[in-house]
């Protein structure tokens, strides 16, 4: 599983390579790390590096998590979110665990996250619903 935002992009590039040989080298040569990671060109403001690169024409596409792109689209005119095709997409999976000696508040929070209401909030922010193991 990739470890940083840029890692996901390069994992997608590798999947595209499997479908279209030669694509990885082209994408790798053109891609910029605008946010996240040690090579990013971070500037002040949440979307500044992305919006600035898109506005200047130094970037024409930004590959990012849907959860973060909604705000970028609202703050920057003329953008739209496009789904990455499932055949090449790399979908991060996150876990949730509680310790055996968790406080009642921690356990209540974990149960809320797993509830229909909690899953609805996560879905509203672009996360996919949790599929619980059989028997739970």
Can you tell me about this structure?
- With 136 residues, this protein is mostly helical.
- It folds into 2 domains: 5-75, no CATH class; 94-136, no CATH class.
- The chain is built from 6 helices and no strands.
- The chain has helices at residues 5-19, 23-30, 48-56, 66-75, 104-114, 116-124.
- The model has no long low-confidence stretch (mean pLDDT 82).
What is shown here, in short?
With 136 residues, the chain is mainly alpha-helical. The chain has 2 domains: 5-75, no CATH class; 94-136, no CATH class.
Descriptors:
mainly alpha, 6 helices
Mean pLDDT: 82
Terminus-to-terminus distance: 26 Å
Number of strands: 0
Q: What is the H/E string?
A: HHHHHH
Helix and strand content put the structural class at mainly alpha
- Integer tally of domains: 2
Principal-axes shape call: globular
The fraction of residues in strands falls at: under 5%
Q: Provide the low-confidence segments as ranges.
A: none
- Amount of helix: 40-55%
Counted by DSSP, the helix tally is 6
CA-based gyration radius: 18 Å
- What can be said about the biggest beta sheet? none
Write the layout of secondary structure elements.
Blueprint: H1 5-19, H2 23-30, H3 48-56, H4 66-75, H5 104-114, H6 116-124
